[in-house]
Every structure is written in structure tokens, then in C-alpha cells.
DNA sequence: ATCCTTGCAAAGCATTTGCAGTCAC
DNA sequence: GTGACTGCAAATGCTTTGCAAGGAT
């Protein structure tokens, strides 16, 4: 649900020695226009509406370029396909175990799903296991109940 | 690092109408004997030492049976392979983005990596998005730094 | 003009499936 | 004896790759 900023995309690509193309612009627009965290296939279907000759491989490559530029994140799960999110700020996700769909915790509640991770714990982890923490992932798993059903 | 309880395995399988076999027993032993969260392939290699005729497909099926019995959990990631863990209690993981390896947050610190998830937030999520939360996943991602290197 | 990107088809890889023979109960 | 399990090979599904033609700078 973000606004796709074309100029920003162009700059971000240039910064990595990559080129601005029709295909990448459309992929980025599609990704910004939804909060459904689509799969590559789902992005492909939408991009194809405006760019009928696009190939799935190009969509994969474009999504990869966006991730490299820091304009998208890839959410990987083993079951089924990876999902992509133009919201690069860390936020908690809800994952439906039955359909594989991923959605966001409603904005109003997202702040209240917080991971307590004191600095000294990060330091302790690094000291004890040599592991440098650079990011985190918080996910609530369950199932989506059809509206109106308990 | 748990003790593989054969009798428990036998009962857990029976409860689901499944049978106790040499292969399943070995798979369970291998899984209990490590805290490295091995992939199916890694389990296969170890089981094959004692049961040379075992097939990879059988290891997959056995791991699946363990998960169904509630004696193991499957940790899925999109990059590379799924990993399996005989520790079914929820606990935070460390994931190395470079090698894909998964390890546990050291026991002494695990309690201090806690997700704040009040009941009313769970209720709010269910009300607002129809999503019933049944589990959660907390993961610290980063990289493992070779010992002695900052 | 350079060299990055596209679109196609083929390859790759983890995982699953179909099936005949075997084994647990 | 019955029905579940094994091991093999083939199939599946997502993703990546090689490459010639096309496009961005």
C-alpha cells in the first residue's frame, strides 16, 4: 500500500550499476500496490496485464533486483513459494498454515507485538555462539477463519 | 540432545495408526542426538551408516511421521532445505544467512528473548482479520562469525 | 558502443508420489 | 492375513541459468 516512487527506484538501481527498465518499474508498482505479500507467480500475473510479453524469469530477476536495492524483502518459507514485500521495515506477519498466505498484523496492533531483545542478550549471543545478529523475524502462525465463523 | 525414547515413539506412532519400524526409530535417534537442526539429507547420511539400504524418500516419510506424531517440528525456509528439530517446545532460533544453518539461542539466554503478545492482541487480531493464532516463530537472523574474529 | 536485461527453454534442487515387494501387527 | 511401509524411479513445483536478441546509458 505504499506509493511506488519511480525516481527512487531509478536511483536505487543506478546505485548498484543496474538499469531502469519497464519490467522492473511494473514489478515494483505491483508490489507497492498490495499488502498481500504476493508470490512471484502472483506478481507475474499482474505485471502481464500491462506487459503481456513479460516472462516469469524476468519477474524473478526483477524481484531479486529490488531486494538487492533494498526496496523489497523476500519472505521465504519452505512450503510453497517465496513471498515479496515492498514494506522493508521490520513488522510482524501472520501466516496461514492452510493456504500459505501471509498478511500483516493489523497496523493498530503491530506495535504491541514486540520482541524483547535486550542489547546484552545480543552481546551474549555473539560471545557464546559467535553469532552476529543483524535482523529478526517474528511470525504468528495459525489459520484464517472464514468471516462469521467462530 | 534429548534422549530418544523408543517406547514413547512406538506409542506415539500407534496412536496415529502408524507402525514402528527400524527406519523410523533410527531417524528419531539421529534427530534426538543433535541440536543442529539437520536437513533431511543430513539425517539420511547418518541413518545410512547403520541402515545402508535406507532411501532418502523413506527418511522424508519418517520425518513427516514424526512431525505428525508431535515428536518433531519442521522448520521451513525458502532458501535451501527444510530442517528438523526433535525439540518441540517453542524456542528462538538463530539462522545464518550465509550457510543456511540454524542453531539455538544458548539456553541461558533463550528466556530473555521473549515475544510480548498479550491475550487482548491475539483477540484483536482474530476480530480484525479473522486470523486464529496457534503458534509463533521467533528467529534472529545474521551470520556466524568465525571464532576469534570481531 | 558497451554491457545489462529480456524472454525462452532447459536445467537444478528439494520434495513428493506411484507402485511392487516387504514387513509390522 | 491385512494394511502400512520401504525403496526405487519418475514426477512435481519453484526457482535459476545459459544464451541470443534487444534495450538502457
Write out the strand line-up for the largest beta sheet of chain A, numbering strands in chain order. 4-3-6
Overall 3D shape of chain A? globular
Number of strands of chain A: 6
Mean pLDDT of chain A: 92
Estimated structural class of chain A: alpha+beta
Strand content of chain A: 15-25%
SSE string of chain A, helices as H and strands as E: HHHHEEEEHEHE
- Helical stretch tally of chain A: 6
Largest sheet of chain A: 3 strands, mixed
Kindly report how far apart the N and C termini of chain A lie. Answer: 29 Å
The percentage helix of chain A is 40-55%
Query: Greatest interface and its residue counts?
Result: A-B, 47 and 47 residues
> What are the low-pLDDT stretches of chain A, counting only 5+ consecutive residues below 50?
none
Radius of gyration of chain A: 18 Å
Please, could you describe this protein's structure?
Two copies of one chain form a homodimer. Chain A is α+β, with helices and mostly antiparallel strands and 150 residues long. The first copy, chain A, is 41% helix and 20% strand. Chain A has helices at residues 6-15, 22-32, 40-50, 56-69, 107-110, 119-129; strands at 73-75, 83-85, 93-96, 102-104, 114-116, 131-144. In chain A, the strands form two sheets. A three-stranded mixed sheet of chain A has the order 4-3-6. In chain A, a hairpin with a 7-residue loop joins strand 1 and strand 2. In chain A, helix 2 (22-32) crosses helix 3 (40-50), helix 2 packs across helix 4 (56-69) and helix 3 (40-50) crosses helix 4. Chains A and B meet through strand 5, helix 6 and strand 6 of A and strand 5, helix 6 and strand 6 of B. Strand 6 of chain A pairs antiparallel with strand 6 of chain B, so a sheet runs across the interface. The first copy, chain A, binds a DNA duplex (25 and 25 nucleotides) through residues 14, 17-24, 39-41, 53-58, 60-62, 65, 78, 80-82.
Amino acid at each position: 500500500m505504499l506509493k511506488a516512487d519511480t525516481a527512487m527506484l531509478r536511483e536505487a538501481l543506478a546505485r548498484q550499476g543496474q538499469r531502469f527498465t519497464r519490467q522492473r518499474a511494473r514489478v515494483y508498482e505491483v508490489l507497492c500496490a498490495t499488502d498481500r505479500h504476493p508470490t512471484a507467480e502472483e506478481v507475474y500475473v499482474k505485471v502481464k496485464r500491462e506487459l503481456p510479453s513479460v516472462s516469469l524469469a524476468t519477474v524473478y530477476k526483477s524481484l531479486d533486483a529490488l531486494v538487492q536495492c533494498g526496496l523489497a524483502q523476500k519472505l521465504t518459507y519452505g512450503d510453497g513459494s517465496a513471498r515479496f514485500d515492498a514494506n522493508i521495515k521490520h513488522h510482524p506477519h501472520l501466516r496461514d498454515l492452510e493456504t500459505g498466505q501471509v498478511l500483516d498484523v493489523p497496523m493498530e496492533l503491530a506495535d504491541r507485538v514486540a520482541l524483547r531483545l535486550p542489547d546484552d542478550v545480543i552481546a551474549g549471543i555473539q560471545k557464546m555462539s559467535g553469532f552476529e545478529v543483524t535482523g529478526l523475524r517474528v511470525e504468528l502462525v495459525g489459520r484464517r477463519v472464514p468471516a462469521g465463523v467462530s
